[in-house]
Each structure stands twice: as C-alpha cells, then as structure tokens.
Amino acid sequence: DTEVTQTPKHLVMGMTNKKSLKCEQHMGHRAMYWYKQKAKKPPELMFVYSYEKLSINESVPSRFSPECPNSSLLNLHLHALQPEDSALYLCASSQGPRVNQETQYFGPGTRLLVL
Amino acid sequence: AQSVAQPEDQVNVAEGNPLTVKCTYSVSGNPYLFWYVQYPNRGLQFLLKYITGDNLVKGSYGFEAEFNKSQTSFHLKKPSALVSDSALYFCAVRANMDSSYKLIFGSGTRLLVRP
C-alpha cells in the first residue's frame, strides 16, 4: 500500500482566515514533504520533515506553518494568505533519505483558492 | 547545479503507436532518476526509477525508461500507447551525493494520445 491521504480536497478561504491542511500516511515512512503546484507547472518543494523534525524549509513565507505531530501526520497551517497562494498543495512521503528509501509517494492534493 | 530538462511541452501520438517522452539531466556524480505521471486534478503517481544496475528500467502500466549515461538522458517509453495514458509526465532527479531529500523536477510534458 502506497497511499498518502490529504484533507480537505478543496478549500476556499479569505485572506484573513486561518485554516489547516492535513496529510496522513501509514506506510511507516519517516520523511514527509509539502509541495506547492501551480497549474501546468512542476511541484515546488516547501518543507521536508525527517523523523518528525523540520529538515528543509525552502524559504517559505511565515504565513505557511508546517507541523508534524507524529510520524504519520503532517499538517500545514495557513494564515493571512494572499490570492497568489492559490494552488494545489501536495503532500508526499518516503521511507527515508538513504538509497532505495528515497522514492516519494504523493497524495491527491488539496486545491486551495484564496479570495 | 542540478537540473532536468524536458524539451517537449507536448507529445502527440496515435493509440497503438509507440511513445517516447524525453528527459535529460545534469548532476554532479551519479543520478537517481524518476518518472511521475499526473492526471488532471490529481497528485503525482510514481512510475519508475533508476538508481543503479540495468540501464533499462521497467515500471507501472507498461512504461519503461532507458538510462543513458553518455547522453545524460532518461527517456520514458511505451511500446503501444493507450488513450488513458494521456496525462502530464514529470521527470525528476536527485544526485546521489546530495544528502538532502530534494527532487529536481523537469517542467513536464503533456502526452496526448488520440484514438
């Protein structure tokens, strides 16, 4: 089973709202990722958690706040977003950083619209 | 610097004909190479990867890819295309000397298989 689940599927929020995206995997993977994808473009890495610790932050604005409560869950807290933040937000996971652990499996994404 | 190039924005092929989606890469050291497919409004699905060993890699849904070190290429192929193969395809690379989890994605190639 290589399933990564994400909720909600769609989200509409105003620029003053606070919302959260949720990602879950039960494959025992120890690395989890958040990506942002604009239409017809490749995914852009935002954050990486490794063994529940933030490993990479790709200079993402502070209005995006990641959280990894446990090894199966990854959240992305959103606050005071801008319309240009509207995109598909993808979560992914991989076993770990070593050779043959690095294949990333993606969830279906949350389509976010900021009004 | 690591990079991936997918020189074709779109590839058109008739159902039943062979297809090729091109990918070239630039990394320091030996690469880890991946192909992902994305259907409309969905996340990325892992198709196949090359880490080491046989240059011809077989993956999901009848796809295969050939690693060519001298040409720094990793083209995706399928002997007989299906209409259902129509989707957006991404090539990605991670340098094996890179201790981070980052994948570098190409710009994507839209495959259109006509009946």
Structure description:
By secondary structure, chain A is mostly beta strands. Chain A contains no helices and eleven strands. Chain A has strands at residues 4-7, 10-13, 18-25, 31-37, 44-50, 53-57, 64-70, 73-79, 87-94, 105-106, 110-114. Chain A starts with a strand and ends with a strand. The model of chain A has no long low-confidence stretch (mean pLDDT 93). Chain A is globular, with a radius of gyration of 13 Å. In chain A, strands 2, 4, 5, 6, 9, 10 and 11 form a seven-stranded mixed beta sheet that branches. Chain A has a four-stranded antiparallel beta sheet with strand order 1-3-8-7, with no helix packed on it. Chain B is mainly β. Chain B has no helices and twelve strands. In chain B, the strands form three sheets. In chain B, strands 2, 5, 6, 10, 11 and 12 form a six-stranded mixed beta sheet that branches. A four-stranded antiparallel beta sheet of chain B has the order 3-9-8-7, with no helix packed on it. In chain B, strand 8 and strand 9 (73-78) form a beta hairpin. Chain B starts with a strand and ends with a strand. At the A-B interface, strand 5, strand 9 and strand 10 of A face strand 5, strand 6 and strand 10 of B.
Explain briefly what this protein structure is:
The complex is a heterodimer of chains A (115) and B (115). Helices cover 0% and strands 56% of the residues of chain A.
Features of the shown structure:
heterodimer, A: 115 residues, mainly beta, 7-stranded mixed β-sheet, 4-stranded antiparallel β-sheet, globular, B: 115 residues, 6-stranded mixed β-sheet, 12 strands, 0% helix
